[in-house]
Amino acid sequence: MARLKHTTVIWIAATALVYYFLAHFGMALFALKPGNITLLWLPSGIALVMCLHWGYRSIPFIVLASFAANFSGMSAFSGTGPFLHTAVAAIADGMVGIIAMHAFKYFLPNGLTRSHDLVPFGLWVCMVPTSITSIILSINLAVGGYISWAETENFFLMLVLADSLGILLVYQVYQGWHDDGKMSRAELNWLAGTTLVMAVLLTLGFTTLPGAVFFIVPLLLVLSFNVNLFGVATISSVSLMSIIVATAHNAGPFEVTDPADSNFRLMAFVFSSALTILGIALQNRQLTSIERSSELWKDAAEHDPLTGLINRRAFLPRLQNEHQRALRTGNTYTFAMLDLDHFKSINDAYGHHCGDAVLCALAAVMVENCRSIDAVVRMGGEEFGILFPECHIDEALIALERIRKRFESSSTMADGKLIFVTVSIGVAAFAGAEEKDTEVVERADRALYAAKAEGRNQIVVGL
């Protein structure tokens, strides 16, 4: 237990260092007056992640990291009592993480999984906690003389957006990495291509063609349908952060004569864009999950759980399709029925688990000796079927005899016992346009019973 606590402290401290460096990163790239207030406060997102992982134990580390990151900037400004006001700001930074954590657990107990979760996430996890702490921060800076009271309203709005955006950008990357961080080769190719186009658009947007920046959002929308959440969230966060950096350095489409208006429009654009992209990515992931679940249910409904072969329900439409194709093209097809000999005595003598092993062994032999286009089906019980599309009966008989001999010469090991079993086979070929598909199956079935009656372990052709 002591080692676990020691490891936990190391992890919390390491994450707090990330908090500290991101704070410096933010202040260096997009600083506003005073020098330690930024357009984007990524540490608020780190604080949420820390609190979700380690709860109240992370608060002292967040407060210390915030204090260390902010104190030099506060001391350099002409305000009063930098130590006290930095401490108040650091405590507020710790509060935003813990308030956001409680809101997240209350309003999103299953996590951020659906597009419907965006409203409670954006409102209760992002906006409400940051609004509470932004009031404290704004009053704290005004009391200390770092900003004038007239600036507090605009300053409050900027803090709310900066901290909320930090939570949004960091958490979406964290959840994407936590849920599905691995990407396929196709996804990596999409990511590489999008990154290249994104770089071109950002370069144009920051230099000669500011409007090119607005093409980033539709590009991210396209990406969200082709890459998992981690890839979309990462590219979205990096590209939107690049826009903020450019604006802070007087480049891009948000550079206007009124800095307050410019900053607000920028943050509103970035925040709404990030929420939109995240919502589309979550919706796409939800739809993909539904499709996969549907495919799994369909697969389960159409396959025999013991042998893995298709069942009668899935087989009949294939037979009907092949019959219709034979009618159109004039080609033929062949159908065979297979039945294990004396299977009941195997179950009685060795138990049903041994009988199951024999069924699986026959299924494996049939699959190994059939073509990829042939349909091998478990009709029910110990009866199996094989549909040979576009196959004359002579060709089918060669494959069926191979199956019969292979199974006759093999044995099945069950509970340390070698079990030798044979199989009887009835086969029929499509006779022409006057015959229905059900009649082909009936002829094969009658031939199977004839094979049983004539001594088993043989093939009989149905006439």
Characterize the structure shown.
It is built from 15 helices and ten strands. The protein is an alpha+beta fold and 463 residues long. The protein folds into two domains: 2-297, no CATH class; 310-461, 2-Layer Sandwich (Alpha-Beta Plaits). A hairpin with a 4-residue loop joins strand 1 (31-32) and strand 2. Helix 8 (216-224) runs parallel beside helix 10 (259-302). It is elongated. The relative contact order is 0.07. The model has no long low-confidence stretch (mean pLDDT 89). One of its GO terms (cellular component) is plasma membrane. InterPro entries: Diguanylate_Cyclase, GGDEF_dom, MASE1, Nucleotide_cyclase, Rev_trsase/Diguanyl_cyclase. Pfam families: GGDEF (PF00990), MASE1 (PF05231). Its EC number is 2.7.7.65.
